[in-house]
From TrEMBL:
This is Penicillin-insensitive murein endopeptidase. InterPro entries: Peptidase_M74 (IPR005073), Zn_M74/Hedgehog-like (IPR009045). Residues 1-26 form the signal peptide. Its EC number is 3.4.-.-. It comes from Mesorhizobium vachelliae. Gene3D superfamilies: 3.30.1380.10. Keywords: Hydrolase, Metal-binding, Metalloprotease, Periplasm, Protease, Signal, Zinc. It is an enzyme of class 3 (hydrolase).
Length: 360
């Protein structure tokens, strides 16, 4: 560098430095825009409002969430510290129903994995979906006979049902009860899809006899080798919930499944460090209602928003449900405080009635 030219360069350098500083400031401003996952991950309780899903399974949020109780006679919540046992009341009611039906079918009880965060939205870790309260992961490990302690629920490892190399189910582990559990879950009309590892799908394709119509809902996907993922459709009262494509009208055991047993789906990720969608989503990327959802006041207490619709105690205290026209029910709800109408116990048999959002 020629020292003599320095004085001439100074203005240029100053300007360049100023530009660098400006660019750095802009970068800070961009990165300072909070990620949606941080805002949603920070909320410990749901928003007080009638149950409603906004947006899509992988880009949305929901109000009126209720918690699956940590324990029930036929289920236990796993990894409780994650605080992901929240869902649309219809989802939570369905998990409880599946747990009862599964026990009746001979499965010892459900170990329930992640459902959603209290208000849904993207998560700090795991899952692209599970954002609108309509997805739930259920372990393929049966509930042990002895109740699990909270510490065991955090640490107990799940049973991997699929060989990582062959992508085939480990035959020593698969039982007819596993098949029955999946069939039961697929039997509910509100369940639109069940995601399982391709090896599990293949096992069902190869072994299910008689009624195979339910196989249509069983969809192969990466992972899902120790749990299955149950997804229900948009619920009544959620006009801004975006439905997914319907599944093709066959058992899905043909060509699309064969693809999973080629080398292509298992090629190593070329760019493993690329940020995932959930790491980039800001509030501006989510449906506009989600800003209100994430900022809304908390429900009054955890107990007020814990679902007891399926428990004997709640059924005992529940008022007989009116059977008249729907307007009788909604005008009754309109007179109640929002919190009460949103979290009123739901009768054991029913999915909650659609509750119109006030002002919509
Ligand atoms: Zn899942």
């Amino acid at each position: 560098m020629n020292l003599r030219s320095l004085p001439d360069r100074k203005p240029f350098l100053t300007a360049a430095l100023a530009l660098v500083a400006l660019a750095a400031l802009a970068a800070v401003a961009i990165s300072a825009e909070p990620r949606a996952k941080e805002l949603f991950g920070a909320r410990k309780l749901p928003a007080v409002a009638p149950a409603q899903s906004f947006g899509f399974y992988s880009k949305g949020c929901f109000t009126g969430g209720v918690a699956l109780p940590m324990d029930g006679p036929t289920w236990e919540v796993m990894r409780p510290s994650r605080n992901r046992r929240w869902g649309h009341p219809a989802m939570i009611a369905l998990i409880e129903k599946l747990s009862r039906d599964a026990v009746a079918d001979g499965w010892p009880g459900l170990l329930v994995g992640d459902v959603s965060q209290p208000r849904g939205g993207p998560m700090m870790t795991g899952h692209a979906s599970h954002q609108i309260g309509l997805d739930a992961d259920i372990w393929l490990t049966p509930m042990p006979r002895r109740p699990l302690t909270m510490a065991q629920r955090e640490s107990m490892s799940a049973t991997l049902m699929v060989d990582e190399k062959t992508h085939l189910v480990k035959d020593a582990l698969w039982t007819p009860q596993h098949t029955r559990l999946l069939k039961r879950a697929a039997s509910y009309p509100e369940v639109e899809r069940i995601l399982v590892n391709p090896g599990i799908k293949k096992k069902l394709c190869d072994t299910v006899t008689g009624d195979r119509s339910w196989l249509r809902k069983i969809r192969p996907f990466w992972g899902h080798d120790y749990h299955f993922h149950m997804r229900i459709g948009c619920q009544p009262g959620s006009p801004f919930c975006k439905a997914q494509e319907t599944t093709p009208d066959d058992d899905g055991c043909g060509k699309p499944l064969a693809w999973w047993f080629t080398e292509e789906p298992w090629r190593p990720n070329k760019n493993p460090d690329a940020p995932k969608a959930r790491d980039l989503l800001t509030m501006a990327n989510l449906p506009k209602q989600c800003l209100d959802v994430v900022n809304a006041p908390d429900a009054p207490s955890l107990e007020a928003v814990t679902y007891h619709g399926g428990s004997a105690a709640a059924v005992a205290v529940a008022e007989p449900q009116p059977t008249g026209p729907a307007e009788t029910i909604s005008s009754g709800n309109a007179a109640m405080p929002a919190a009460e109408s949103a979290f009123a116990p739901t009768p054991k048999i029913g999915i909650p009635l659609p509750r119109p959002r006030p002002g919509n």
